[in-house]
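RETRY 2/3 - previous attempt timed out on the joint model. Re-submitting the same 398-residue input unchanged.
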Amino acid sequence: MIALVALAIGIVLGLLLEPTIPAGLQPYLPIAVVAALDAVFGASRALLEGVFNDRVFVISFIGNVLVAALVVFLGDQLGVGAQLSTGVVVVFSIRIFANAAAIRRRLFRA
Amino acid sequence: MTSPTDVRVKDPTLSLLSRLVDDAMDPGYLEAHARGDVSPSGWRHSVAIAIVLCLTAVLVVAAVLQVREGAPSTGDTRSDLVERVTEATQALNDVERRVDDLTTQTDQARAAALTGSESDQTLNDEVSELESRVGGGAVSGPGVRVTLTDGPPAPAGEGGPDLARVLDTDVQLVVNGLFAAGADAVSVNGQRVTVLSPIRSAGEAVLVGFRPLTPPYVITAVGSESLTADFESSSARSELAGLEATYGMGVEVTSLDDATVPARSDLNVRYAEEVSSPGEGPAEGDSP
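RETRY 2/3 succeeded.
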């Protein structure tokens, strides 16, 4: 319940404030978003499996976002930023799919 | 890690993928669970979760907005360019106005300095005379105004320039005709025509002194009382009448009792010579 309200507040805030990301950080925003979504999906699954832990959630969220951004930043410095971005997105998408599938199995037993 | 529905893939080449799928949920949750680290349900923890979720939503929205702004349609690009051109033109006009003001001030200062002795007066007159010839000062007096407007557009599908439009050659015809009829000063849409002002076309626009003008083209000339009559009887006028009859181009000649032709705005001193006669001040400096 709190989670849904918080999400709604976040969307409204984002639309109202229209936060402008500094130009230097813009390439990392999509990666950060994918990483954040992965953390949220993982937390949802943990919640359903009854092993949710808020500390793990907050830390995994921040860690995911930071590490993903760092990897892409390193890739940019090495000239393989685009490829590493793709890699990060692929890994997180697979995780999101797997978590979504696990959530689906738990909810619908199918 | 060990979800009941998991099927372990033994193939080592797939181990990376299978581990990726198996560990999709952060292993930290299970480890914490195994440690017996139960999530407490105080308000503090709810707030932390709420903040993180809120942040996620803000991030998603920000990313979506950024992508939308970052990929402007061609229409946006075009209007943006048009805006920038308008702004730059505006800035240019402002600067030119300031140049005009300063030039006027300089002229006044010079006129004030060149009063007194007779030689000063002669020099001043000479400067004024030369200035009006090169377009340095505004000229007013009896004159004539010729207005050229585009004729009805030719039926579409025909190649080549639309001859009913006022072309650079038509403006040239009028300007040359006016000078031939004895005009002292001529301007096209407020742009003084001097010996250094080309009249040419770029695309669909007619450029006078490298400045694009838009129709109707109002050509104003200052000259003697008989300027209008002389122009009306010139060969340029009969050629214009031909254009009028053939293409439907609008030509309107009006005699003016008091016409004003502005000074040329971008007049620079390109050549200066020191006046060596005694008693004279130093020559005007070069200001490219």
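Chain A touches chain B through 51 residues (CB under 8 Å). Closing ticket.
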